[in-house]
């Protein structure tokens, strides 16, 4: 994983090239020679931030359909409420 550096002007003129560089590691985008921004792939960003899965992702896990789940029937008895 290599770090690349490009100027803001080059980035504006060659966005596709910068995106290709980001496949190999972070790309520092400089303004007047000083690092100002970082371009990285979304996968790398998720690793860096530790993004958690949402409920939809968790429920759509592969192989979930193969899990046997046979819950026991539960009978719930109702009783009168005493408000005294």
UniProtKB/TrEMBL annotation:
The record's listing under Gene3D superfamilies reads: YefM-like domain
Report the coiled-coil segments: none
**Role noted for this protein:** Antitoxin component of a type II toxin-antitoxin (TA) system.
Hey, which family's this protein in?
Belongs to the phD/YefM antitoxin family.
Q: What is this protein called?
A: Antitoxin
């Amino acid at each position: 994983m290599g770090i690349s550096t490009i100027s803001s002007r080059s980035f504006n003129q060659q966005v596709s090239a910068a995106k290709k560089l980001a496949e190999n590691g972070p790309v520092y985008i400089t303004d007047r020679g000083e690092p100002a921004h970082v371009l990285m792939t979304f996968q790398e960003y998720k690793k860096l931030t530790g993004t958690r899965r949402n409920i939809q992702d968790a429920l759509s896990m592969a192989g979930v359909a193969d899990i046997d789940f046979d819950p026991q029937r539960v009978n719930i008895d109702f009783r009168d409420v005493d408000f005294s």
